């Protein structure tokens, strides 16, 4: 997948994420990629933040327990102000898309690769 397609999907997902407070806890998938935006706790339960997470391809329902058990990987944190309007969402997508593209080319996203 090319970088511009990833950016479009990140912009769409970040819009939905900013718009719907309840969806933040359930997670917003980034298009058909194995990445999601979610508000959750870190591995050590020290704080709750907004995260970009990588999931296995066969992944559907987000659960914090999946973070603790290693089924999903926390890749990056972000703030709601980074996605508050179209200009900031574009800047957010520019940065996050590069990270996603690197992850797509570096490792397989099957459940076995997380364990």
Rounded to an integer in angstroms, the radius of gyration calculated over CA atoms is: 13 Å
- Low-pLDDT sequence parts: none
Number of strands: 4
The level of helicity is: 40-55%
Set down the secondary structure blueprint.
Blueprint: H1 3-19, H2 21-26, E1 28-29, E2 35-41, E3 48-54, H3 64-68, E4 73-78, H4 86-106, H5 111-114
Summarize the structure.
This protein is α+β, with helices and mostly antiparallel strands.
What would your notes on this structure say?
The protein has 115 residues and is α+β, with helices and mostly antiparallel strands. Helices cover 46% and strands 19% of the residues. It has helices at 3-19, 21-26, 64-68, 86-106, 111-114, and strands at 28-29, 35-41, 48-54, 73-78. The chain has a four-stranded antiparallel beta sheet with strand order 1-2-3-4. Helix 1 crosses helix 4 (86-106). It is globular and about 35 Å long.
Sum up the structure in keywords.
single chain, alpha+beta, four-stranded antiparallel β-sheet, 5 helices
């Amino acid at each position: 997948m090319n970088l511009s397609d990833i950016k479009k999907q990140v912009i769409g997902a970040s819009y939905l994420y900013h718009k719907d407070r309840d969806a933040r806890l359930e997670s917003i998938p980034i298009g058909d990629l194995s990445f999601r935006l979610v508000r959750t706790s870190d591995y050590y339960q020290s704080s709750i933040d907004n995260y970009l997470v990588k999931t296995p391809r066969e992944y559907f329902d987000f659960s914090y327990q999946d973070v603790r058990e290693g089924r999903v990987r926390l890749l990056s944190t972000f703030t709601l102000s980074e996605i508050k309007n179209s200009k900031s969402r574009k800047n957010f997508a520019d940065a996050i898309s590069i990270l996603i593209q690197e992850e797509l080319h570096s490792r397989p996203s099957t459940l076995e690769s997380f364990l």
